[in-house]
């Protein structure tokens, strides 16, 4: 079980010559919370004043076909939380949740176990159609997304929201849907701000597509501040009983150095060459911590695809049967605790240049669709009751779609180009200016670390 910092880290950030450098002053932990809230600042996550690394698992008993929310069923979640404690994880990602159900008990039990939750705000029924994205970006869809935010943002242990999962895949035509995913990210961040909620980070979980990995990553962090993500995550299965170089992870550190926002692996754990989880050592080492903030092992429950580490005979089975990988994963986490200190993070956020069109990236414009007019009322009135996991879903709603492109910086919801929140993101607001790397390097960070107990 983790302890929180006894004596806060003192971080002093001095900026020289950078365009509006952002001081990293993580929020103090809430006194009421069983767990301190996690925030994104610079290119890292913070638990109170301590650098936070995702050390977790992907959790979706029954897989996507079961369409079952494990956090809405106390028997299920409590059974598995007991196992999560044995693993020693601090985060779970849940792909499918029911925004019409209550989650108090499971979320509290998770908080009591020191476990944070990353929520996918979409699900198979309410999602963007990668090959016909326009019609699926509609009011009905955003109502469900926003209702999921309403439901989970009330919990201090909600770590982040995903605005989409692997919408863009290895079919190059799906790159045309990236502007809709980015619009959803923008809308979610705007909704959180307009509803005066806690600034829970929002970002996208990308498939690991070698041809356009960097283009997609750059796309999600380019443009005006309102259009950028709070973090980027991708799924990666390239470490197969191998090492930092042979897996290509060294290149993935190099390529993402200076990316400008937090990154973590939203899925990892190759199975094609056995599993030793030696990637955990790399993730927690200074080879990676300056750029990456940990990751989520795919996955907890054993499904047909054979990745899971815990077999569950039936959804409500009282106990689970740990598989070979269970002890191995627990051992890897234990042997590789979260590093102390700041991990060599970068204190400022920055945008990067938008990718240009080529054979692997078909978008030829950086303009995003404006939020569908019907969805604007949610900003002032709230989303109301969520549709849950029933009904026809939103992809074929055939109405309430976007009617044009948004002016960057406005999202067509407000005419204000940047917000107080955005002002704390590096001051790029209003123009798609790439800040020179030297401006980031010009920041002098003096970090005094005293008496901190770490994960
Ligand atoms: C991509 O779209 C083009 C143009 O509509 C079409 O000709 C092609 O078959 C599509 N490719 C795939 C793999 O779906
Ligand atoms: C790193 O970036 C280069 C240049 O964009 C690209 O060719 C290469 O595929 C990238 N490598 C990885 C592992 O993403």
UniProtKB/TrEMBL annotation:
Q: Name one Pfam family in it.
A: Glyco_hydro_72
Under which name does UniProt file this protein? 1,3-beta-glucanosyltransferase
- UniProt xrefs under InterPro entries: GH, Glucanosyltransferase
Instruction: Keyword check for Transmembrane helix, yes or no.
Output: no
How does the protein associate with the membrane? Lipid-anchor; GPI-anchor
Q: Where in the cell is it found?
A: Cell membrane
Compositionally biased residues, Polar residues:
393-405, 413-422
Tell me which domain of life the UniProt entry assigns to the organism this sequence originates from: Eukaryota
Q: What does this protein do?
A: Splits internally a 1,3-beta-glucan molecule and transfers the newly generated reducing end (the donor) to the non-reducing end of another 1,3-beta-glucan molecule (the acceptor) forming a 1,3-beta linkage, resulting in the elongation of 1,3-beta-glucan chains in the cell wall.
Enzyme superclass (EC): transferase
Alphabetized PANTHER family for the sequence: 1,3-BETA-GLUCANOSYLTRANSFERASE GAS1, 1,3-BETA-GLUCANOSYLTRANSFERASE GAS5
Q: Which organism is it from?
A: Chaetomidium leptoderma
Describe the family membership recorded for this protein in Swiss-Prot or TrEMBL: Belongs to the glycosyl hydrolase 72 family.
Q: Which UniProt keywords apply?
A: Glycoprotein, GPI-anchor, Hydrolase, Lipoprotein, Membrane, Signal, Transferase
The EC code for this enzyme is 2.4.1.-
Q: Which SUPFAM superfamilies match?
A: (Trans)glycosidases
């Amino acid at each position: 079980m983790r302890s929180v910092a006894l004596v806060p880290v003192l971080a002093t950030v001095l900026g020289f010559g950078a365009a509006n450098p952002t001081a990293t002053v993580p929020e103090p932990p809430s006194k009421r919370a069983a767990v301190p809230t996690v925030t994104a600042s610079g290119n890292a996550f913070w638990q109170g004043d301590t650098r936070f690394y995702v050390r977790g698992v992907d959790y979706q008993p029954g897989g996507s076909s079961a369409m079952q929310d494990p956090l809405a069923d106390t028997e299920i979640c409590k059974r598995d939380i007991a196992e999560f404690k044995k693993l020693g994880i601090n985060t779970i990602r849940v792909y499918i949740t029911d925004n019409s159900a209550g989650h108090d008990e499971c979320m509290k039990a998770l908080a009591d176990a020191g476990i944070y939750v990353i929520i996918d705000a979409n699900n198979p029924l309410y999602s963007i159609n990668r090959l016909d994205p326009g019609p699926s970006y509609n009011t009905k869809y955003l109502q469900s997304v926003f209702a999921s935010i309403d439901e989970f943002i009330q919990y201090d242990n909600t770590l982040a929201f995903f605005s989409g999962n692997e919408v863009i895949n290895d079919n190059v035509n799906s790159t045309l849907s990236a502007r809709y995913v980015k619009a959803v990210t923008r809308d979610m961040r705007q909704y959180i701000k307009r509803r005066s909620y806690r600034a829970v980070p929002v970002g996208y979980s990308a498939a690991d597509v070698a041809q356009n990995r960097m283009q997609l990553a750059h796309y999600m962090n380019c443009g005006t501040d309102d259009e950028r993500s709070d973090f980027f995550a991708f799924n990666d299965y390239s470490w197969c009983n191998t090492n930092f170089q042979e897996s290509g992870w060294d290149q993935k550190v190099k390529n993402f150095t200076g990316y400008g926002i937090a990154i973590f692996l939203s899925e990892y754990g190759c199975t094609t060459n056995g599993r030793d989880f030696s990637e955990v050592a790399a993730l927690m080492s200074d080879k990676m911590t300056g750029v990456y903030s940990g990751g989520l092992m795919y996955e907890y429950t054993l499904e047909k695809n054979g990745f899971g580490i815990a077999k569950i005979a039936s959804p409500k089975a009282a106990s689970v049967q740990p598989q070979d990988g269970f002890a191995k994963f627990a051992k890897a986490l234990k042997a590789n605790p979260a590093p102390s200190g700041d991990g060599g993070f970068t204190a400022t956020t920055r945008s990067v240049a938008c990718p240009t069109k080529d054979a692997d990236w078909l978008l030829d414009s950086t303009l995003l669709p404006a939020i569908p007019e019907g969805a604007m009322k949610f900003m002032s009135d709230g989303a109301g009751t969520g549709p849950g996991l029933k009904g026809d879903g939103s992809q074929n709603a055939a109405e309430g779609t976007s009617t044009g492109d948004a002016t960057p910086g406005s999202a067509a919801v407000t005419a204000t180009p940047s917000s107080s929140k955005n002002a704390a993101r590096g001051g790029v607001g209003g123009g798609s200016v790439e800040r020179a790397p030297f401006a980031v390097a010009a920041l002098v960070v003096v970090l005094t670390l005293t008496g901190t107990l770490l994960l």
